[in-house]
Amino acid sequence: xxxxxxxxxxxxxxxxxxxxxxxxxxxxxxxxxxxxxxxxxxxxxxxxxxxxxxxxxxxxxxxxxxxxxxxxxxxxxxxxx
Length: 81
Fold this sequence. Notes:
It is built from 2 helices and 4 strands; from the N terminus they run E-H-E-H-E-E.
């Protein structure tokens, strides 16, 4: 598993109506440099929303591990910065 630069726990932000956790993840990635890895801790429902957004934004998911409903997703920052 790649060593993350930052870890972000978004479990408390879970709300299927407004997807606040996605905005927090996007903002955090925007503040990171290209090639850095963000580890996001969430639940399986958030994972279903995070994966398509990262594909759309062009940030590859390096690894996603689920253990008893808890998901750890490693996302590599891509883009210009």
